[in-house]
Specification:
Three copies of one chain form a homotrimer. Chain A is an alpha/beta fold. Chain A is built from eleven helices and ten strands. In chain A, helix 2 packs across helix 11.
Amino acid sequence: MMGRGLLGIEDLDRDDIELILETAAHMKEVGERDVKKVPTLRGRTIINLFFESSTRTRTSFEIAGKRLSADVVNFSPSSSSLSKSESIIDTAKTLDAMDPDAVVVRHKVAGVPKRIADELEAPVINAGDGAHEHPTQALLDLMTVVEKKGRADGLTVTIVGDIAHSRVARSNIYAFTKMGAEVRVAGPPTMLPANVESLGVKAFGSLREAIDGADVVMALRIQRERLSGAIMPSVREYHATFGVDRAKLRFAKEDAIVMHPGPVNRGVELSHDLTDHRPSVILDQVRNGVALRMAVLYLLAGRPQPRPTEEEDS
Amino acid sequence: MMGRGLLGIEDLDRDDIELILETAAHMKEVGERDVKKVPTLRGRTIINLFFESSTRTRTSFEIAGKRLSADVVNFSPSSSSLSKSESIIDTAKTLDAMDPDAVVVRHKVAGVPKRIADELEAPVINAGDGAHEHPTQALLDLMTVVEKKGRADGLTVTIVGDIAHSRVARSNIYAFTKMGAEVRVAGPPTMLPANVESLGVKAFGSLREAIDGADVVMALRIQRERLSGAIMPSVREYHATFGVDRAKLRFAKEDAIVMHPGPVNRGVELSHDLTDHRPSVILDQVRNGVALRMAVLYLLAGRPQPRPTEEEDS
Amino acid sequence: MMGRGLLGIEDLDRDDIELILETAAHMKEVGERDVKKVPTLRGRTIINLFFESSTRTRTSFEIAGKRLSADVVNFSPSSSSLSKSESIIDTAKTLDAMDPDAVVVRHKVAGVPKRIADELEAPVINAGDGAHEHPTQALLDLMTVVEKKGRADGLTVTIVGDIAHSRVARSNIYAFTKMGAEVRVAGPPTMLPANVESLGVKAFGSLREAIDGADVVMALRIQRERLSGAIMPSVREYHATFGVDRAKLRFAKEDAIVMHPGPVNRGVELSHDLTDHRPSVILDQVRNGVALRMAVLYLLAGRPQPRPTEEEDS
């Protein structure tokens, strides 16, 4: 089981992941009904505690919670007033005293959700922390692959981009290797972490080689400011070398799918054409994101939570 | 019928407008109950996608959606991160993949709601786009007039202010002319569009003449920065010439009403006295706004929406 | 009774306070259920009108409203666009026309909630106005004391800090004196108002004396910028003189509790140790805050509200 929160895919075993995916498939069916709502979390409170702004992920969690009939409260402290980590923990403990049933945390610093989880009664869901993990993104990616391919086991998954600085890459590496896929990563040398093969993946300096025979090609969002410098001087050059387009895709399996966590820098990570059309499945990822987050909220906030007793030391 | 959204009054015919007004009258009755809520849109999701900040209109739509038991999600991207229209469409398509039942869009550029509507499964409601249209404002104005006067047909409606730059004026011109009213517009020459009479209205350079025998006097909000310049050098001069006060109102019909979309620049578009007292009906307009938006949401989001199928090209 | 709103503790009598505390105790029991929600305010609308940002208090009211099944709408106008008080009233009247059942107001200027209340149909709850009052904070403090001590009557309550600029101090002085407690205040001379003893309290320049035999020690949050100057030159010196720590606490009653409205400047108003551990009851205050605000919302928004009639002068 997931224990008392979802901080990273690294902590999950294959059974956890399968339970989440099965639950998510059921939740997706709810989202296709005329009345897209179940009373499962009625009377439960979910707090979206986003220290880093992310309207897309926050909206996905908010819609997920509301479709489960939870009360969802958004709390986005200005980062200026909370620069010291001490304040972060105090803020989280204050919210915890309002008895939420789950707290969804995003922060630009790796490890903050874990530090918060250590102090809280409520289960904590990591919605992205620095370059560490973004577990619900990896789970929705996995869900989408399983939906399209029937399984993850035995597939070849190529992740291309700034592997070193990407929590999406990290969580997906854990998720797909745990589920039996072969994971390859590709990117410019400055964007490949030195020890990446210790995570059980194969690293490539060439997308052409990495894509060879792949079932899934996942492009990561590039921070344009990282492209300045001698090795990869321009967006144009990045696209020529590591951008996914139909020409490069010819080396993948014929039925390969293309993924991206969004938002896409069109013409950079993906050609314009691939951003909008099959075999890219970007909007399926978004749609599955709501179902997947419903599943995670259900599994974590749906069970009776222990309440701190009156006399307990605070 | 309204088709798949509400982008402007220009697209509606008289039957559409009458259906909306009848529905709004019913919704207003709901708002007067002790429990101001009906289960009509339970399990439906409404997204308020406001690229331009507008707490008043956003709040009106939010309350309207909640009184219909819909889940309402506010999404206000910072305009800086979405300066390119490409991003706007991608953002909207991402939200669409979360299966909302209606998306309410405000943007400072005319035509953006239409461009978004062309790409989305969900019906789009224009909550104001540049100087183009603000259809729900015009409909709530029409609702208020019909409530006070029993009809719009045959009435004389005088709109005064910056006609050229006002989406409220444009939508109201369409709405009242379609319903059989005589519409007059008045303002300084720089604020009257050259071709305004082609919209079926009479243009006046003098408020005194335009107001003569009017049943309804509608003042528009002035952007103070537009008043600088030779022709209309000051707020004080604007008020003297085009501000509505009791002296000028004596030329209108005895039972004329005064309207304003709010917020009023007191002592500019309206005298202080008229801002707060009859015959102005400003707060009735606001109150009817909630009922009118309930009607529009009910008509657009209340019917089963087709869902994109799994295999459809995205 | 509380009349048509809750603007300050000064306006309440002992019966009002006891009714609120009894109702809050019941609401707290709701918050301890598995389904933390009652249908009491279904179909009622609560608007959080926060001119001054306060995510903690706003969140507490939002959760309180949602646990009563009310629709809660957050409205936070940028203070820049509303610098003139005229606009504030117009904004409030506009929201009032949307028929809310309660409006919760925070503003940095004392008296604004009262001015708004004078104009609105809906009951107004003051969520903090300048250095005037913060009544729900004092009531939740009182609730916490009664919960821990069985009563307020006959207790000695010491409030330490910037009494002169604190709405929390002011509201608590009213609340505890009305309930029969002896209230003492302590702080540097610049932070003690000249006429403070006219409020029925004893003033001390020394925490050591003020704390002697106290049942409750309440530290206030210090604005660090107020500490610059000759009399109290540094945070360190403030803590040495007026910060509450275990050494100073030895002069209070053995079972004394320590309170703080939060957020704590750790090591300034309270020692680090006391911030996190008994006898401080800071998180109990936060938890009781939700129950207390449920009680206030229930008492004010739960009864049928008169609606303005159609023809009434606006």
